[in-house]
Design a protein that fits this description.
The protein contains 9 helices and 9 strands. By secondary structure, the chain is α/β, with parallel strands linked by helices. The strands form 2 sheets. It has a 5-stranded mixed beta sheet, covered by helices on one side. A 4-stranded parallel beta sheet has the order 7-6-8-9. Helix 1 packs across helix 4, helix 4 runs antiparallel to helix 5 and helix 7 packs parallel to helix 8.
């Protein structure tokens, strides 16, 4: 374990403890950072790129944003045990690991700290355990502060790489700002248009691009759209078609259920598109995030046009 600057408790981070490092990493000179989800992993690796004596690992790498049913494996528990720093999305997304965090001595960086969070979107047949919508990474205006939180927190924990963390963050912020401006420009002609999403994770994404979510329905095992919800969507789309008000496109999550969306599409004669919540991948650094968001924007433009 790389020596951390003391006192950790004064850094303004959410810490699970200020105890001694785990036994298995006692003589390790590496700073072991564990990122809980893929978006947070990408932001963390962007900030730490080129840092000597720093290792960043990813805990959960699967295409779903609904981690409330996720169960930690033995491998996950070992990863948490061996971490010096845990970087988490926050806003209730990682509630599945509360007990593990309570037993960990690692410093915890909560990327949602201080952000103005949106309330969680409820939907029939399924209720989130969290009060707030945790999908903050889907809005560049939130991704920027997440990068800052990671960089500033690591600066307080690792004096050897202070300048590098600041430099990397500045580079990432510039790339993010330029990309966000282009996304806004691409969607500007469709400001105020409505979309239907078969996942409740696109609230921040739609808001950032000045779009309205007419209906957000999450379909997973044991939870499907009701007949009333389907009929509401069908009626709304038909009204828009009748008065030539512009289509209300339907979007499902990549690898998500398409059953109800396909039913609606057949009824009104429209296409179903896919959006990516960026919860899995193989890359590191900010570019995979920017690429995935750009693909989502391109999909929106195609559907709305």
């Amino acid at each position: 374990m790389k020596k951390l600057i003391a006192p950790l408790c004064a850094l303004g981070l959410l810490l699970t403890g200020c105890g001694q490092p785990a036994a298995q990493t006692e003589n390790d000179d590496t700073l072991h950072i564990l990122a809980t989800t893929y978006p947070v992993y990408l932001f963390t690796t962007a900030v730490t790129e080129g840092a000597e004596g720093v290792e960043v690992d990813l805990l959960v790498n699967q295409q779903t944003s609904c981690l409330h049913d996720y169960t930690l494996t033995v491998t996950d528990m070992k990863a948490i045990e061996g971490a010096d720093v845990i970087v988490m999305n926050g806003a209730g997304l990682e509630d599945f690991m509360d007990d593990a965090l309570a037993a960990s001595d690692a410093a915890v960086i909560d990327c949602s700290e201080g952000l103005d969070l949106l309330p969680a979107q409820g939907h029939e047949g399924h209720d989130h355990d969290t009060e707030y919508d945790p999908h903050i990474w889907m809005d560049a205006d939130y991704a920027g502060p997440m990068l800052t939180q990671i960089a500033q927190s690591l600066t307080g924990l690792d004096s050897a790489n202070v300048a590098l963390y600041s430099q990397n963050e500045g580079k990432a912020q510039l790339a993010l700002m330029e990309a966000a401006d282009s996304w806004q420009e691409a969607l500007a002609p469709y400001k105020g248009r409505s979309i239907v999403t078969f996942h409740d994770g696109f609230q921040y994404f739609a808001g950032a691009l000045n779009l309205n979510i007419f209906k957000a329905i999450e379909e997973e095992e044991g939870s499907t759209a009701s007949a009333q919800e389907i009929q509401e969507i069908v009626d709304a789309i038909k009204i828009n078609q009748k008065y030539d008000l512009g289509t209300i496109p339907i979007f499902t999550e990549v690898n998500g259920s398409t059953a109800s969306a396909d039913t609606i599409a057949r009824e009104v004669g429209c296409d179903v598109y896919q959006l990516d919540l960026i919860m899995s991948g193989d890359g590191t650094g900010l570019q995979p995030y920017l690429d995935a968001m750009q693909k989502n924007v391109d999909t929106l433009v195609e559907a709305l046009a």
